[in-house]
Amino acid sequence: MPKSITTYWNPLNSDNKAQWQAIAGLEGMVEELTLSVDQETGEYTRLTRFYPQADTKDFGSKSHNYPEEIFIVSGRLYDRAFEMWLETGHYASRPPYEVHGSFYTDIGCVVLEISFPNRVA
Questions:
Q1: Phi, psi angle pair for 83, to nearest 5°
Q2: Which residues on adjacent β-strands are paired with residue 62?
Q3: What is the pLDDT of residue 1?
């Protein structure tokens, strides 16, 4: 089965707020919206929204055994693993096992993530 398809809608429009899901343990700080998923491979595209002052330091850094790509759609996000602000327009292609996070944002941030969990290292 190919990746799911939804055509021409704006997930950032306030009319679509109900589509977003809080991330367990980060309620009121971070939420996500899966845009598409391939049920066969597990590959997915999603948006993650960090509200102003969101801080994931209590969850520490993370890594996983598959590659992913991220693009900062809006705002800015501080990645403590790299001691770097990722701002609107930043892009990264993360290799498997790359440590990233924890994260903090002062003004809020929306991140586009494309993950490839079937491409394990």
A1: 50, 55
A2: 100
A3: 52
